Amino acid sequence: MADLPDHDPAIDALDDETRRRLGELWRERAVTEMGAGWAFAQVVTELYALGADGEVLALATRGAHDEVRHARLCAHLASVYLGEPVEARPPKSIAMPAHEGANERTRMQLHVVGLAVSETLAAGFLQACLAVCEAELPTRIARSHLEDDIAHARVGWAHMASKAFAPDRAAVKPWVPKLIEANLRHWRSRIAELPVVPAHGYPEHDALTSALEETARDVLVPGFRHVGL
Fold it and tell me: pTM for this structure?
């Protein structure tokens, strides 16, 4: 990409196997970010159906665009690690959470609430990564992602505090602990598969798990209390 370098001395100094492993992880993250863009676009559509506030719609629309940009940034970083062109492609299969037992309107609201949970936890994860990252290019990209993920989480929190959410608050409330635990379970599983390369933004697994649990305890739980959930 035009505003990012095509080389990083810290990446060039890696052994071939570590460089390949990190490159494949960033290639995978490019796919994941494209999937997140699709999911964000679905949430935008559902927010319109729910009668969301204009400010929330504007934030969400920008968020869908951000995820595509994230995918391109991840693909660029993957290409630097791998030494070959990498294209950001969408995943072959994408689906929104079914939330079986919820009616259609509650399900749409849960997708927005789930967005707040996932993006808030992602911000906690990225903060832990940035705390140890020394390589310039991964640091720049992770910092850009963190800034956007904080804004993306605001979509969900702002919507939960709005009039468009109020009629469904009671129906959504019992689902909140399930949403938090399902997201934490996903993150724990994912962390267990990651390499430990602190200088490139992959800290010890315990540090990442602790960061996510702290984010859930110190941000998610008070946030849900604040919006009456």
Answer: 0.93
Where are the chain's structural domains?
9-93+101-226
Answer CATH for 9-93+101-226 from 1.20.1080, 3.40.50, 1.20.1260, 3.30.70: 1.20.1260
Q: How far apart are CA 56 and CA 70, in angstroms?
A: 21
Which structure tokens are listed for 164?
A: 């468009």
pLDDT in tens, 118-165: 999 999 999 999 999 999 999 999 999 999 999 999 999 999 999 999
- Give the tokens for residue 181: 């635990």
The token pair that represents 140 in the structure block: 């720049």
Task: List the one residue out of 157, 159, 130 whose CA is nearest residue 226.
Answer: 157
pLDDT digits (tens, 9 = 90+) for 74-121: 999 999 999 999 988 887 778 888 999 999 999 999 999 999 999 999
Give the SS3 label for residue 13. Answer: coil
At residue 36, the 3 state secondary structure works out as helix
The residue with tokens 């009671």 is 170
Tell whether the torsion through CA atoms of 218, 220, 224 and 229 is positive or negative.
negative
Between CA 198 and CA 133 the distance in angstroms is 6
